[in-house]
Structure formats: C-alpha cells, structure tokens
Design a protein that fits this description.
Elements (H helix, E strand, L loop, with lengths): L3 E5 L25 H10 L4 E5 L5 H13 L3 E6 L8 H8 L5 E7 L12 H10 L5 E5 L5 H8 L1
Length: 153
C-alpha cells in the first residue's frame, strides 16, 4: 500500500508573502523544497506528497505545478485560483492541462466576512469545480462553520 503525505507546503521564504509565520513558528522562515522533503519521505517509506498552496496567487499555483513536473515525489497539487473571477470557467479549463492539479484552496480564514463562503460569486466558482474533477480544500475558523455547512449543502 502506498503512503502519501496529503498536505505539504513548499516555498522560497519571503517575509512579506509569508507574514503569517509568527515568531513562534520561526523555524519555518527558511526555504522548503521537495529535495529537502524527499529524504524524510524515504526514511519513513512514504511514496510522495500533495503540495498545497501557502500563498493565494496564480504564481504560487504555477510554482507548485512546476515542482510537480520536476519531482516525482509530488503526486498532486492543490493550488489557488480566484473562484470569484468573472472568467473562472476559462481559468479552470486552462488548468485542465495539468494532470497533477487535483483541486484548489482559498484561505477563507483571512476573509473578514464570515459568510464569504456562501457569496454568489464564490458559490458559482465552487459549482464549476466538479466539472473538471477538482476538489476544494476548505480552511476556516469556527465562526465560519455555519457558512461552511451551507456551502456543502
């Protein structure tokens, strides 16, 4: 049976882009790339990982897709796309060429509106994901649970 690390972040550390890394998490203020992880995966007989976005940008998604292209240990990518974009269907169709892309994530925790997840534009984007066989990884705070429940219903 294959063992996969289902949630792994890779980055070239940048203080502004990774401002969420507090002093208590200072160990994360370094570059972390697949070559660093591969030796750890091997030592625990883990066959690969899923790279998950840590920055909400199309550049981050492309960075992860490029890593997946160059490192066999990356078995899938959960990227970011603006699910509220007017041209979201075109964007999803463009991403369909990347077989390692499995889904998307939006850091809803950072949204000031607790009902962000059930806004019409966001729901429209979410509704299009299944047509491309994409998943959505939800990331919320407890006060957003009610909206998350409505979203999945």
């Amino acid at each position: 049976m294959n063992k996969i690390d289902a949630h792994q972040h890779f980055w070239h550390y940048h203080p502004a882009r990774h401002s969420w890394i507090t002093d208590e998490m200072a160990v994360l203020r370094n570059d972390y790339l697949p070559a660093d992880l591969d030796k750890e995966l091997d030592s625990y007989e883990i066959q690969g990982s899923v790279a998950v976005q840590a920055d909400q940008s199309k550049e981050e998604t492309q960075f992860l897709l490029d890593l997946a292209h160059n490192f066999d240990s990356i078995k899938g990518v959960v990227g970011w796309v603006d699910l509220q974009a007017v041209d979201i269907e075109r964007r999803l169709a463009t991403y369909a060429q990347y077989k390692q892309l499995k889904g998307f994530r939006h850091v809803a925790q950072d949204e000031p509106d607790n009902n962000f997840l059930i806004s019409a534009a966001f729901c429209n984007g979410i509704g299009l994901l299944s047509g491309y066989d994409y998943t959505y990884d939800i990331l919320i705070y407890p006060q957003q649970l009610e909206a998350a429940l409505k979203l999945v219903q």
